[in-house]
Model the fold of this input.
Amino acid sequence: MSALQLSAISHIMLGVGDLAKSLEFYTQSLGLRIMFQTGEMAFLAGGNVTLGLSQPLAAASDHRVGATEIVFAVDGVEDVHHQLSQRGVKFLREPRQVTDQEWAATFSDPDGHRLSIFGPRQTALNQRRSC
Done:
C-alpha cells in the first residue's frame, strides 16, 4: 500500500453570520470575485485556493472564530494597506516588518476572522521611485 499524501489545499471554508454582509466585504473591500453562490454559501476566487463562505458552517459551530489567519500575498503591503483603508477596512495591526524583506498588516472580516496582507513593503515601482 502506498503512503497517503494530501498535497494541495483546494478550499478554505469560513463560517459567516450574514452572507450578504460578508460577500460585500470580500468583493467590494477586498476585490475577490464570486465564482459560485447558492443559498447560504458562496465561493470566491482566491488564486490556487477557493475561499468558501458558509452560513450553515457558522450555525453548526459553537465558536465562529478561532486561532486562524488567512494571508493574502500582495506586491506592496503599504500600497495595499492604503487602498484597503480607503475602502473602509479597519486594521488591527498597521504595516510592520516581519522578516528581513517581508511586511504584513492585519485586519478582520465582519465575523471577526483574522486576515492579513503579506509581501514586500512597497511595489517594485514605488521602491524605484523612492531611491
About this structure: The mean pLDDT is 91. The chain has two domains: 11-61, 65-131.
